[in-house]
Protein: MFS transporter
Amino acid sequence: MAYAASTGDAVRPMSGEEKKVIFASSLGTVFEWYDFYLYGSLSAVIAKQFFSGVNPTAAFIFALLAFAAGFAVRPFGALVFGRLGDMIGRKYTFLVTILLMGLSTFIVGILPNYAAIGIAAPIILIVLRLLQGLALGGEYGGAATYVAEHAPHGRRGNYTAWIQTTATLGLFLSLLVILGCRVSMSPEAFDEWGWRIPFLISIVLLGISVWIRLMLNESPAFKRMKEEGKHSKAPLTESFGEWKNLKVVLLALFGLVAGQAVVWYTGQFYALFFLTQTLKVDAQTANLMIAAALLIGTPFFIVFGTLADRIGRKPIIMAGLVLACLTYFPIFKAITHYANPALETAAATAPVVVVADPNECSFQFNPVGTSQFTSSCDIAKSALARRGIPYSNEAAPAGTVASVRVGTTVIQSYIAAPAASTGVSLSHGPSTHAAPTDVKAAGAAFDKGLSDALKTAGYPPKADPAQVDHVMVIALLTVLVLYVTMVYGPIAAMLVEMFPTRIRYTSMSLPYHIGNGWFGGFLPTTSFAIVAATGDIYSGLWYPIVIAAATFVIGVLFVRETRDVDIYQHD
Structure:
């Protein structure tokens, strides 16, 4: 049964019921993202509380599981809850997801630490993180589908754009709550018990969200389809087992979501990583500047969602991808200029060079933080990358222990493992080729020598607060957030419109969470590995640029505009 919207549907104001639908769906999703971001923002404190007494083998396993919960599990949540949403309904499914997320988060806040209950503490924590990942995998697709199926024809971009604000608002809310807790108590008190407060607050947010969602009705499109007996009995099989639908899923992933994800992560997460880890801006200052940019930029989710109803979803998303590809390098170079000008000056006047055997240098991709890079080349590059120092590479003869040249000063690196594990021959050559007998002493000597040389050359250990141009940095960060709003604002409506009602929840959720959970989630560690390999502090931007460019090409050539699609069609 097709639905033909009248002209009045497209221009009339929101009804009270529609406002309640948008408010309830958006509010609940804000809380879900808030819950999800807390763990990442407080990961250093949580590690001290729950992993401090775990043996290295167990810690390795827990690290893998924590990583899986954060990113890899989300698509599985999309499958589980997408299937339920297409079979039993949107309302009850995404009611379950918020209960699962909220209760898991609250329990983290009351969970005894390792010192209190031993190995059970990290095990329970990982289980809770897995539940959070599963819940988040089901929440977004349900909220976007639910809102879109309530929206009148011609207003879906505007209505679903409110859902698109939720991830940014959730991040913003988590940063504010954590910042409020930190400034209201001593660092020692926060590390001991204050970190629990943001998790405990989630129970209040959960209660409000559940109360509002219980008052909602089922989606009219799903209700009508179910009354006609046309709902899917096997949404997974229909979505991914039939080529006509699987093809659209793949186009949604590679022609829309993958590019959207890397632009989103670059504009909000990698920008913060770049400020704090590369430019060494004070964490509180960096968080406040990011929060200011988010506050300025967030209304543009609604602006671009509304514009998408007028000119189409695809042109806006593709324009955002192109702008990101063309301007990321100059924007991030400008951020360096205004946030840490001393670093920019030092790199120009006293360039740093790593001299090493290329065969000894690894690509330091380490997503779960458990790998050990022990060759002299890896040690030298990792030390510079962690300090945010740009450098170039110079090849050395095979078997040479790496060194770092800062201007005219040379600092010898060292080998942190036996020769057999590094692949470097130590049986001949000058004594500088031999592995140090005392790795700890060698490491301390290398770090001191490198730090002294960098200081003499004018490389700042951290950004000087007096030299940070806050206005210009916030302006540049706001531009990055605007790109996020362009690619993300219209995408919920477009994903909903790409799939028929009977399999919509399942089909749109999987590509969304693969794109954002995997393509986006791998961005920080992949970009860091690229920077460590090349020495160029901006080279990590090639990852989002290449993904965004590939998505643009696929999207322009193969993804059709969906603005005028009738979403009330069942097939």
